[in-house]
Design a protein that fits this description.
alpha+beta, about 270 residues
């Protein structure tokens, strides 16, 4: 049977089967390349359908959504993978950590991280309303922080698989985040110009400004709020918004120590152990 024809006619049963298999594979750190072709989404829409079902399965296990990430927030990344817009995925509440934490290399198949600017929502951003403006989203943000996204692309080398649908179904590879100290009264900070410096084992790995993510991190948060609203999700108070990578993805190994810092947002660090 033609794989594309099967994928284009995904049934409710296939979406359920794909979510069950993806949950099992995530628990066991199985490479994405081993995901069954007959269950693989070949469109972004199908990827979001499976993502929705996977979210329900985590909630049934008592693990809710603590935030959301924006992927492909930079034009450079969009061009590299051939998807001309951002994509989003949930962050499980159980995987949100504070700075200085240790990550066990045994919990990941291919551990990688990204330096980002993160927001914490202070007031619910409801679903189903008209499109939000950056000003409206800003008014609902309580704090901002420098953060590290944790990802596990499970052997895909961060490539877009099958048109991006499987990446989306897999929570856009998210495996948590590490938050720096929250900064209050952040509206006086020019987040577009705020530069994050990345250091790995004492060596500079470069730097990137907030302008790398859709021109300004608040634009990324606004895109996310509007996209989630259309999907029927509420960005609840307390939710984290990871706005996107300002530099490049960095793969980590046992013994590595990574630090991200900026002038106005402070710093956050993580160490990889066995």
């Amino acid at each position: 049977m033609n794989v594309r024809r099967m994928a284009e006619s995904h049934t409710t049963e296939q979406v359920e089967q794909a979510a069950v298999r993806l949950l099992q594979d995530r628990d066991a750190c199985v490479a994405l390349a081993k995901f069954p072709t007959n269950l693989t989404p070949l469109t972004l829409s199908q990827g979001y359908q499976i993502q929705d079902q996977l979210i329900k399965k985590y909630k049934s296990r008592g693990d809710g959504i603590g935030g959301w990430k924006v992927g492909l927030a930079s034009r450079k990344m969009q061009k590299a993978v051939g998807i001309p817009h951002p994509i989003e995925g949930p962050i499980l509440a159980s995987l949100i950590r504070q700075g200085g934490t240790h990550l066990s290399i045994n919990d990941y198949l291919t551990l990688c991280v990204e330096a980002e600017i993160a927001f914490v929502v202070g007031e619910d951003i409801a679903a189903g309303e008209k499109l939000y403006t950056p000003e409206q989203v800003s008014a609902r943000i309580e704090t901002v922080a420098v953060a590290i996204e944790i990802a596990d692309d499970r052997g895909s080398n961060n490539s877009v698989l099958h048109g991006g649908g499987l990446n989306i179904a897999n929570f856009v590879h998210n495996a948590g985040c590490v938050m720096g100290n929250p900064v209050q009264n952040w509206s006086t900070i020019d987040l577009a110009q705020e530069t994050l410096q990345i250091t790995l084992n004492g060596y500079s790995m470069g730097a990137g400004a907030g302008s790398e993510v859709l021109g300004n991190p608040i634009n990324s948060a606004t895109w996310l709020a509007n996209n989630l609203s259309q999907r029927g999700y509420v960005l609840s108070a307390g939710s984290i918004i990871m706005t996107g990578c300002v530099t490049t993805t960095i793969w980590l190994n046992e013994g590595d120590s990574l630090r991200v810092e900026s002038k106005h947002l402070g710093e956050v660090s993580v160490k990889v152990v066995r």
